[in-house]
Amino acid sequence: MQAQSRTRTRSSSNSTAAPVVQKPTVQSTAAATAPSNNSPAQSQEYLSPLEREVLDELNLARTQPTQYAAFVDEWRKYYTGKKFARPGRQSITTWDGLAALDECVNFLRSATPLPALQSAKGLHLAALDHARDLGTSGITGHRGSDGSMPEARVERFGRWMNSIGETIVYDVDTARAMVINLLIDDGVPGRGHRMNIFNPGYTVAGIAVGSQSSFGAKCVIDFVGGFAEGEAGDHQSGTSRTRQRTP
After folding, report:
1. Are strands 79-80 and 15-22 parallel, antiparallel or unpaired?
2. What is the pLDDT of residues 170-224, one digit of tens each?
C-alpha cells in the first residue's frame, strides 16, 4: 500500500513530507468489528459501506488498541525476512520487515485507549473532492490539481478547529488492511500515519474513497480537532492551529 504524510504548523512556515513507500497490503483473517458504541459511522448515510468500515476500524484501533494488536500480529505469517507475500496479491519487498510489525504490536499493547472519532459530512465532502481529483488527474500528494491544500478544501464546507491532518491511501484494499498498514507504517520515519490515528487532539474524521478510475481508487482521510459544519473557514485571529498531512 502506498501512503504519504505531511506536517505543518500554522505558527511557522515549515512543512515536511515523508516519502511515499510501498507497504504490504494484507487482509486479516479475523472478522472482528468495532462495538456499536464505538461506531459513529453507522448513522452517517452519506458514507459508503467501505467508508463506514474504515471509520469503524480506526475507532476499534483507538478505543481497543490491545485487541487490535492481535489483529496486526496475525500478519506475521506473511513475512519471510523483508519479503511480504499475501495469497492472491503481488508479493513485495518491505523496508523494515518484521521489525515494523513488532514495533507496532508493542506500541498498541502499551497505548492508552482514546475516544472514538466522530464523522462530519462537510469533512467527508472535502476528502471526497481530493479523492476524486487524485483518481481522475493522476496527481499524487496533498496539493490538488487546482492548487488547493487540505485546509482550504475543508474550509469550503465548514470550519476546522485546533489541528488538521490528512492521510492518503493510494492502494485501496479492505478497511482492516488499510488501517493495519497505516499502523505498521513500513518505511516511514516517525510512523506519521500511526501517530495521526493515535493523535489525542483529533476528534473528527472525514473519510472518502473515490470511485475506480483510470488512475485507480484512492482513500483520503482528513482529521481535525473539531469541526463546525457550513461555517466560514479560517478567520480565527490570534489562534495558533496545527496542520498535519499524512496519506
Report:
1. unpaired
2. 988 999 999 999 999 999 999 999 999 999 999 999 999 998 766 678 999 999 9
* Beta carbons of 160 and 187 less than 8 angstroms apart: no
Closest to 202 measured CA to CA, from 136, 246, 168:
246
Residue with cell 470511485: 211
Distances (CA, A) of 199 to 58, 69, 114, 124, 164: 12, 17, 9, 19, 11
Instruction: Write down the residue that cell numbers 519479503 correspond to.
Output: 83
Phi then psi dihedrals of residue 20, to 5 deg: -75, 125
CB 56 within 8 A of CB 39: yes
- Domain residue limits, the chain: 49-229
The residues pairing with 143 across neighbouring beta strands, listed in sequence order, are none
**What count of residues does the chain have?**
247
Q: Name the CATH topology of 49-229.
A: Pathogenesis-related Protein p14a (3.40.33)
CA-to-CA dists, residue 154 to 46, 56, 122, 131, angstroms: 16, 22, 7, 13
* Confidence (pTM): 0.80
Which residues sit opposite 93 in a β-bridge?
Answer: 83
Q: Which residue has the cell 471526497?
A: 128
Helix-, strand-, coil-residue percentages of the chain, each rounded to 5: 35, 20, 40
Q: Which of 176, 156, 170, 246 is nearest to 213 (CA)?
A: 170
